[in-house]
Amino acid sequence: xxxDEKHQPEIKNGRQMGMPLDQFTNxxxxxxxxxxxxxxxxxxxxxxxxxxxQRQEVFRxxxx
Length: 64
Description:
By secondary structure, the chain is mainly alpha-helical. The protein has helices at 21-33, 44-63. The chain is elongated, with a radius of gyration of 16 Å. It starts with 20 loop residues before the first helix and ends with a helix.
C-alpha cells in the first residue's frame, strides 16, 4: 500500500486505505488487455457505474 507512515506521516493506519497493489495491478491489467479506454478498479467501480454514464451523456449533449 502506498499510504503508510513512512511516506505520509500524518496518515495513521494508512495500509487500511485503498487496495493491495497486486489487486490493483491485476484489475488494471485486465482492463487494459481488454482494450478498454477507461479502466476503473476496486471500490471506484460502484461510484463510476452510478455516476459516469450520466455525466458522459450530459457532456455528449453539450458538445454534440
